[in-house]
User: Fold 3-isopropylmalate dehydrogenase from Pseudomarimonas arenosa.
Amino acid sequence: MKATITLLPGDGIGPEVGAEAEKLLLAVARQFGHEFTLQTGLIGGAAIDATGNPLPEETITLCKQSDAVFLGAVGGPKWSDPNAPVRPEQGLLKLRAELGVFANLRPVAPHPATAELAPLKPHLLHGIDMLFVRELTGGSYFGAKRREADAAVDECRYTVAEIERVTRRAAQLARGRRRKLTHVDKANVLETSRLWRSTVTRIMDSEYPDVAYEHVLVDAMAMHLLTRPSHFDVVLTENLFGDILTDEAAVLAGSMGLLPSASVGEGKVGLYEPIHGSAPDIAGKGIANPYASLLSVALLLRHSLGLEAEAAALEQAVSSAISDGVLTADLRKDHPASTAEAGNAVLQRLSALAKAA
Ligand SMILES: NC(=O)c1ccc[n+]([C@@H]2O[C@H](COP(=O)([O-])OP(=O)(O)OC[C@H]3O[C@@H](n4cnc5c(N)ncnc54)[C@H](O)[C@@H]3O)[C@@H](O)[C@H]2O)c1
Ligand SMILES: CC(C)[C@H](C(=O)O)[C@@H](O)C(=O)O
Ligand SMILES: [Mg+2]
Assistant:
């Protein structure tokens, strides 16, 4: 097939893990006989430095003209002054809004080989297979913001329509899995959470009677995630809670460098990014874990291009590299692989799988 994919490397380790994503996309095209046109755009701090704008118009146009977008990461200390007029993260939020990608899918299914490496007891990590569905274009991220003399306000606003569409997406995904949905909120305190709770209840009861569901308060969920993570199947939650809980879930996988994400909406263009950030503490050293990015490329192949066999082969190649101990410094201290070595290990395994297919 023919597809156009926009790459937005961004800042910090973004270009380092993005280079491996590009390498694997080209390898998939070569080995499975597709024609991928790759184009690169500016976003985040790199875009601020070059143009003053964290999401230049040219980048929006490139993204909208493509079939899918891969993003590395944005942000870093250079642009983190709280008084700065523009910030890299604004570029990412605007891109999500422009593409209308309201559902952010963050799968958490730790590889058995990393159970030994995670800080939790291995028996707790057995059988974890969850899919977070994080609402991505509403809530306090997008509400009105203002500074007063001695105060600041971030408005958290959700409409019924916004909650309904992401609930339906999550419930449909649950139908293809274990048919269990956990909705996470703070309905004992927040008005928006009470609207979420009643809307989720109505949609699930009336449209998805075959999917079991529960409501869990977010503070308790932060604990349940660490004490009984294998209980959860699809976890549906609002934007800010989803951001926080998925970084916590990365501990179950063993590293921030292992969790991918897919952001989708009603439009044709999906956005794919690792859940981690620009990791300024390790940037520029060639040691970042590229697997979250490569797994995000697999999600891109599956969700935006419909290439299920290619997506599965790439996931299998990453899994086999992990089984064989090809791990970056976040996961092994003795003889860690570099970012490029880990990417090459996946590439070799993908070639072998493609030849065998
Ligand atoms: N999607 C994004 O672009 C995105 C996501 C999260 C944070 N950020 C931005 O990134 C900057 C840094 O944020 P932070 O430090 O809080 O979070 P971070 O995710 O960048 O890093 C947190 C910790 O995880 C480690 N880590 C992250 N990714 C890794 C990888 N691939 N391999 C190995 N280790 C990895 C880092 O070294 C660090 O110790 C901030 O400006 C933040 O706004 C961007
Ligand atoms: C960089 C930031 C705006 C972003 C978010 O909070 O959504 C990040 O933390 C993420 O998880 O993708
Ligand atoms: Mg985050």
